[in-house]
Amino acid sequence: MPAARLGRAAREAVSGLPREFWWLWTSTLVNRLGAFVATFMALYLTLDRGYSASYAGLVASLHGLGGVVSALGGGVMADRVGRRPTLLLAQSATAVSVALLGFMTDPVAIAGVAFLVGMSANASRPAVQAMMADIVRPEDRVRAFSLNYWAINLGFAVSSAAAGFIAEFSYLAGFLIEAGMTAVCALVVFLKVPESRPAAPARKDEPQVGLGTVLRDGRYMAVVGLSFLVALIFQQGSVALPVAMGRAGFTPADYGLAIAVNGILIVALQIPVTRFIEHRDPRTLLVVSSVLAGYGFGLTAFAGSVGAFMATVCVWTLAEIVNAPTQTGLVVRLSPVHGRGRYQGMYSLSWSVAALVAPLMAGQVIDRFGATWLWATCAVVGTVAGLGYGLLMRGLRDRGAGGEGPGRGRGRTADGSGPAVTAAEHSPTA
Fold this sequence. Notes:
By secondary structure, the protein is mostly helical. The protein has one domain (18-198, 210-392): MFS general substrate transporter like domains (Growth Hormone, Chain: A). Helix 10 packs parallel to helix 12 (282-298), helix 12 runs antiparallel to helix 15 (371-392) and helix 14 (340-368) runs antiparallel to helix 15. The chain is 76% helix and 0% strand.
């Protein structure tokens, strides 16, 4: 029975994960369901406040810069202070700053508070990813990260649709609703999510993990660099694609139809695709997804209709579905237990920097050479990233499982309440 098989697949996709994960997942979903501000910020500044497009771009850049600043800071806090306190502080600060932003009228004040919003919102990401690595068994981590990514996209799809209706009623209401939803996230973490940070090393001779450790980890920094290249490609869906379609004579509604395919496919396919890739070689998955992303955007050069643009979106969205959980799982595997926050912070930094660089890159290439050259560049960058993953992961072995080396696999939570992770040795990835 197709229905029976579908139900069994759904149960298998969500079974075996700890209760703490599901509360953290719920917090993520609630957070994204209330993510209105990022959707209508440009319209709010230009239409409601009457500022120029250049000023709106400056505010967006400052929001992104705040994320760059906090990526490493949030990771360090997650390791030093704990995952739970970092989450509570970041989410509480986000709720306050988002509400405050809705009442700002001075352009300098708006820009400054937007920077604070970006900084506080991004500070929670390393803590969430480190906590998931702490509480989920190594063999279930790709599935857990995939489910979390699915929640992010489901929430964003709903909030994006709702943002337009809320903006017609009141922009201030959008700010306050997001602030309230973020406060609910903090409440869920406070009431239901325990601390998961492994206790400090028992032996004083065990090496301490600092940011310098991360920077000196050549293989890991190479992964961060490749992640930056892949992120540059995926950013073009929201940065270059609307510009290119506009210059080709398509309307904003046409772009909306094309990009909607991205969210619909992620919500529909993320879970079944994850079941297919969950136990497959991550080296192959990362090589294929990187090349597929590059050439998915490369095919945009040949698109001449809305349907053709939608087809190209399908190609690179499939790459995104495969790449996101696999890449995050690789980051965890390369991270030592007591440095997961810092390692996740560096990984988050690669995406934050890409979000800043991508608009500049797209604008310069399109203005100087045309959109076709940008799509060709995406194909080249995707090929380079794929080759990089193929070479980097040749003969790669886990550090235990998700960073647990021999003798370090079983830790205790920071409050000493019980096991934080379960160690398991994995076979080589190649």
